[in-house]
Amino acid sequence: MSSKPPARIQDVAEAAGVSTSTVSNVLNRPERVSADTAARVRTVVAALDYVPHPGAASLRSGRASSVGLVLPDIANSFYARIARGATDAAYRHGLSLVLCDSGDHPDRERSYFTMLAEQRAVGVVVAPLGADPDRLTRLRQRGIPLVLTDRTMPAQDGCSVAVDDVSGGCLAVDHLLNDGARHILVVNGSRTIRQCADRYQGARKAIRSSPDARLEQVVAETMTIEAGAAIARGLNSVPDAVFCTNDFLAVGVCQGLSARGLSIPDDIRVIGYGDLDVATLAAVPLTTIHQPVEDLGRAAIDLLIDEIEASDEHVHETRVFPPRLVVRGSTCG
To answer: Minimal CB count within 10 Å: which of 48, 78, 85, 265?
Structure first.
């Protein structure tokens, strides 16, 4: 989806026939500008819906102090690891991090953006779980620099960082196939979530290399341990292996299969996704797909700072990090 980017101070200056320093004076030091010029500039500001971002000037002058990080669930260890990486990068740049839990609510996200701009944050890193293009466009139009994390968007629309989840899904199923599995069940979250769709796409890509293998899918209502356990208890037939698109589901599946008297990995193999702390705490340590999550947070902050400091020289980037397989006890290896 293409959308008109927010107006810049250069756009205001060109439309008003003045310099950018004159626009800055009208907005910040109006006593230095004639009444007629100030009125003309303000008319253009209103017409272009220009929202000045005070954090940019503050960062360049060394007076800025914070960046915002808007996450959908700070209790989730995945997002906590993003926050850890972002905090490291913000500290390296001499900035503090303002952590906001949106609950994945669009209205709450927008309110946080307004508050962060008013508090002179230089920009925001946001991880919207169920984002749609219109929602992201509205966020970018709040007039504050934004970097998207754990989700990609076209570079012309802004910077983003993510993990290659198609590759991750392929790694998981390739491992199960090499482990001897021929009937593989994918326990997935909603495929309206881009990461879930990509991981399933990778699984389907891998299964095509083995004509004698088959892939099935069941979708969990929530991506939790409880949901995974309920799915495992309710299976009518038991596959050779299960690929769960997050570690919480995988731990739950292991619990549900064990409750049915099945041994992991002797009777059935299980692989998760994420390499979260819960993967090593399971009764049978979980084979999983590792995501460099802290790197997402660090890269997002670095891109955000570059956008502010480089201004017109900044080129938006889409950075995609490769996942890797971590083999533990829930598969035969």
So the answer is: 48
Name the residue with tokens 């920009």. Answer: 123
Choose among 239, 254, 238, 263: nearest CA to 177: 239
- Alpha carbon distance 244, 246 (integer Å): 5
**Assessment of whether the complete model's pTM goes beyond 0.90:** no
The SS3 assignment for 294 reads helix
pLDDT tens for 56-71 read: 455 445 445 788 999 9
With a CB cutoff of 8 Å and minimum separation 6, the contacts of 100 are: 68, 69, 70, 71, 112, 116
User: What are the sequence ranges of the domains in the chain?
Assistant: 9-48, 54-162+294-320, 165-291
How high does pLDDT run on average in the chain? 86
> Each residue of 221-261: pLDDT tens digit?
999 999 999 999 999 999 999 999 999 999 999 999 999 99
For the record, the structure tokens of 184 come out as 């593989």
Q: Which CATH superfamily is domain 54-162+294-320 in?
A: Response regulator (3.40.50.2300)
